[in-house]
Amino acid sequence: MVVGDISQERDLVILGGGPGGYSAAIRAAQLGLSVSLIEQGKLGGVCLNRGCIPSKVFTYAAKKQSETGHMKELGLFVGETSFNLNKLLSYKSKVTEQLRSGVETLCKANKVEIIKGKAGLIGEDRIGVENGHQFDIYTFKQAIIATGSSSVLPEGCPKNNKRMLLSHEIFDLQELPEHLIVYGHDYISLEVASSFHALGAQVTILLEGTDDFLFDSSITKELNRLLKKKKIKIYKEAKILSVEETEAGIDVRFRTQGKEEDVSGTHLFAAGNRKPNVEDLGLQRFGIEQNEDGFIKIDRNMRTTVPSIYAIGDVTEGPLLAVKAIKQGKAAVESIAGGNPEVDLGFLPTIVHSIPSIASVGLTEQQAQNLGIDLRVNQFALGSNGYAMITGNKDGFIKVVTDASNDFILGIHMIGEGAVELSSTFVQLLEMAAKEEDAKFPAFAHPSMNEALLESVEGLIGQAIHTVPKGKRQKESSLSFIR
């Protein structure tokens, strides 16, 4: 190894080129800061290359596959449909390569210096970067740790099993599973189960460590109904006891609701646990405080217990989501540049790109009840929405929870087509401390899924136009209106 004998000076260095890291670097350049971005692998991190983007390629393909029946209703016949996994993998590679190239171009255009290599702290103002046989030392005024996190297998799951897959591996699979066993209860577990089922796999869900999905009870009830309709078997309160590889695939023994069961499949996906990628950074030598799970503790400006070092994204406490990393990354450099940014993750949306999709923001009905709030609650079924009828996406609803004493909106929850896109509107309403009238006042595009939000709010006081009044018998199983 060749060691640089002279340390090189840098104003701001960022460790990690994932969505948080490169967003922070570009924002720093926009604010006039000289910035160097250190990345061991590919720009974009796990999110762009093996996580968020590849997974959404699969969920998008699955959604299109699920729409083929409705296409025939519209008179669009393209022959017998079939699924080619190799073509999808090629498309996934093309998308990730184009997006990664775009990030590289943006960094270059903003004069962000890219340093390839593995970084580690060697002082409160110094960092060492190893790249092959080369080892360089940099001094810095400020540094931001944005090295992300990694998936680890849950207890009871063996390592080095090619049929045992984590989130960064399942979307590189070279064959479509005949029977995929999904072990988890988070959003990625639902996305994997939903998309691989739509693409032709048999799916069984082992709901890890919980007796149901962790959404508002109405969403959970509808989700269970739709999964049952798709013949996706669910075992609740599941804990894997053993996994054995066989000639045909994989055998899983697990405990569910007090009894032991066995299920055989061709592949096993585990959501797993995540650990921060900080082991090789040397944090403890310099007094950077971590919690018991290894996540870095930060203040409101993303500063660690060492004033010159900041941390963002998955290495910090809280939800492990790209949107958090991006928000924190921008705020950290704004603080370094002398600003006073604010990061409030109170209304961070829960998003699932399942079929249909799910979005949840704010308090659930149960959480609000536990706080002793006098509530108004209403659900508007998408089957009564004109555009849902046109597109054939009639499953699901929007549910609104408000405070009856002052009309403030406390939570909005949706399962159905358009949930992901509408989630930004949900967040804005809660961030602005909107009241029921604020959601009803604007003009909503017609016809559109957006109107379902309007009618859900109007229905809080019995004024939704396309809902049969309570107490009156609904003559049709679903309402359809030409307006």
Automatic annotation (TrEMBL):
<dbReference type="InterPro" id="IPR004099">
    <property type="entry name" value="Pyr_nucl-diS_OxRdtase_dimer"/>
</dbReference>
<dbReference type="GO" id="GO:0006103">
    <property type="term" value="P:2-oxoglutarate metabolic process"/>
</dbReference>
<feature type="active site" description="Proton acceptor">
    <location>
        <position position="446"/>
    </location>
</feature>
<keyword id="KW-0560">Oxidoreductase</keyword>
<keyword id="KW-0676">Redox-active center</keyword>
<feature type="binding site">
    <location>
        <begin position="147"/>
        <end position="149"/>
    </location>
    <ligand>
        <name>FAD</name>
    </ligand>
</feature>
<dbReference type="InterPro" id="IPR023753">
    <property type="entry name" value="FAD/NAD-binding_dom"/>
</dbReference>
<feature type="binding site">
    <location>
        <begin position="184"/>
        <end position="191"/>
    </location>
    <ligand>
        <name>NAD(+)</name>
    </ligand>
</feature>
<dbReference type="GO" id="GO:0005737">
    <property type="term" value="C:cytoplasm"/>
</dbReference>
<protein>
    <recommendedName>
        <fullName>Dihydrolipoyl dehydrogenase</fullName>
        <ecNumber>1.8.1.4</ecNumber>
    </recommendedName>
</protein>
<keyword id="KW-0274">FAD</keyword>
<comment type="similarity">
    <text>Belongs to the class-I pyridine nucleotide-disulfide oxidoreductase family.</text>
</comment>
<dbReference type="InterPro" id="IPR050151">
    <property type="entry name" value="Class-I_Pyr_Nuc-Dis_Oxidored"/>
</dbReference>
<dbReference type="GO" id="GO:0004148">
    <property type="term" value="F:dihydrolipoyl dehydrogenase (NADH) activity"/>
</dbReference>
<dbReference type="GO" id="GO:0050660">
    <property type="term" value="F:flavin adenine dinucleotide binding"/>
</dbReference>
<keyword id="KW-0285">Flavoprotein</keyword>
<feature type="binding site">
    <location>
        <position position="56"/>
    </location>
    <ligand>
        <name>FAD</name>
    </ligand>
</feature>
<feature type="domain" description="Pyridine nucleotide-disulphide oxidoreductase dimerisation">
    <location>
        <begin position="349"/>
        <end position="455"/>
    </location>
</feature>
<dbReference type="InterPro" id="IPR036188">
    <property type="entry name" value="FAD/NAD-bd_sf"/>
</dbReference>
<feature type="binding site">
    <location>
        <position position="314"/>
    </location>
    <ligand>
        <name>FAD</name>
    </ligand>
</feature>
<dbReference type="InterPro" id="IPR001100">
    <property type="entry name" value="Pyr_nuc-diS_OxRdtase"/>
</dbReference>
<dbReference type="InterPro" id="IPR012999">
    <property type="entry name" value="Pyr_OxRdtase_I_AS"/>
</dbReference>
<keyword id="KW-1015">Disulfide bond</keyword>
<dbReference type="Pfam" id="PF02852">
    <property type="entry name" value="Pyr_redox_dim"/>
</dbReference>
<feature type="binding site">
    <location>
        <position position="272"/>
    </location>
    <ligand>
        <name>NAD(+)</name>
    </ligand>
</feature>
<dbReference type="InterPro" id="IPR006258">
    <property type="entry name" value="Lipoamide_DH"/>
</dbReference>
<keyword id="KW-0520">NAD</keyword>
<dbReference type="Pfam" id="PF07992">
    <property type="entry name" value="Pyr_redox_2"/>
</dbReference>
<keyword id="KW-0547">Nucleotide-binding</keyword>
<feature type="domain" description="FAD/NAD(P)-binding">
    <location>
        <begin position="11"/>
        <end position="329"/>
    </location>
</feature>
<feature type="disulfide bond" description="Redox-active">
    <location>
        <begin position="47"/>
        <end position="52"/>
    </location>
</feature>
<dbReference type="InterPro" id="IPR016156">
    <property type="entry name" value="FAD/NAD-linked_Rdtase_dimer_sf"/>
</dbReference>
